[in-house]
Amino acid sequence: MAKIIYGIAGQGFGHSTRSQEIIRFLISQGHQVLIFTYGQALFLLDKNFEVAEIPGLGLTYKNNKLIYWQTIFKNIQTILKQSRQWKPINQKFKDFNPDLVFTDFEPLTALLAKRFHKPLISIDNQHQLTNSLIEVPDNCRHDFLMDKLAIKSLVWGADYYLATSFFNTKVTKKNTFIFPPILRQEILDLQPKKENYILVYQTSNFNHLVEILKKTDQQFVVFGLNKEGRENNLEYKNYSSREWLKYLADCQAIIGNAGASLISEALHLKKPYLAIPVKKQTEQIINAQYLQRRGYGLFTYQLTLDDFQEFIANLPKYEANLAAYNRQDNSAIFEKIQEIIKKYS
């Protein structure tokens, strides 16, 4: 049995839902896991696992655009404001005395692993950008370099990088391995159908989006706006896991940002995807680019009525391409994790 500290970035649910599946697997294999996290991940995980709250760093958006200087300023404020917590966090790490440290893009646990000379395993989708050859649009090259710098400064020096992705790229570092997306068991268990509505998931400020959708003759179910009720052809829903999974399984298609988790779940369920990446968040732009290139959906920076009509017109083509998508479970990355644990414990 190995003792493992698992650090999880707490902004949004993508990191925590992915990590939850790995943690369940680790526990099922007899390993002891202590989670270090914050924010939304804390809300999701502390009911079922042993969790320690830590200071959290996040990203700042305005009008669906990542604002670098506000991100840096707010994170410095967070570090200074919560500096008194560093000593007890250090002590908790020492008292647990892990055999290995895992991190899903959480920098504090990565730093503690280095400080206390513990093996560090990085499991995320971000390091595909830094440790493999990625095709980047010309207008994103400056932002891509900035993102690579940010990723390398947050989590660095891992003994292994296990990157997850719905598309393959050639790795450039020997300790890097790319695996299919990690999917929640709830997703693997779904039996998808196709009903007459499009699912919309909105996590940042798409002020124009709702007005565009109202001009169409389609039906929409909208999550992420923290409201309930019906308005013309839009039905608004507050988030609940059961309702979300039902609408995800039975929708005709999906409109959302270009985060890796939702795209991966959509592809597994063979749902065409209209991706609206957060501006200046190069990871999302690259996801949207590869999604469109493989013929699984459409990529646009800001939705127009023409974009939407193009998406609807091409649904049969997207569905045909998705029929050939190779659905996989999580067994390949689980086998690699067990191999790594055996090496160090």
- Which strand order does the major sheet show? 3-2-1-6-7-8-9
Q: Oligomer, anyone? A: single chain
Count of runs of 4 or more consecutive helical residues:
15
Q: CATH fold name of the largest domain, please? A: Rossmann fold
Overall helicity: 40-55%
Give the strand content. 15-25%
Q: Estimate the global geometry from the Cα principal axes.
A: globular
Kindly report how far apart the N and C termini lie.
Answer: 8 Å
Name the CATH homologous superfamily of the largest domain: Glycogen Phosphorylase B
CATH level 1 name of the largest domain: Alpha Beta
For the sheet with most strands, the description reads: 7 strands, parallel
In short:
With 345 residues, the protein is of the alpha/beta class.
What does this structure look like?
- The protein is of the alpha/beta class and 345 residues long.
- It has two domains: 3-182 and 330-344, 3-Layer(aba) Sandwich (Rossmann fold); 186-323, Rossmann fold.
- Helices cover 43% and strands 18% of the residues.
- It has helices at 14-28, 39-45, 68-81, 86-96, 107-115, 127-131, 141-154, 185-188, 209-214, 241-250, 260-268, 282-293, 305-313, 315-323, 331-344, and strands at residues 3-8, 32-37, 51-53, 61-62, 65-66, 100-104, 120-124, 160-164, 176-179, 198-201, 220-223, 229-231, 234-237, 253-256, 273-275, 297-299.
- The strands form three sheets. A seven-stranded parallel β-sheet has the order 3-2-1-6-7-8-9, sandwiched between helices.
- It is globular, with a radius of gyration of 20 Å.
- The relative contact order is 0.13.
- The mean pLDDT is 90.
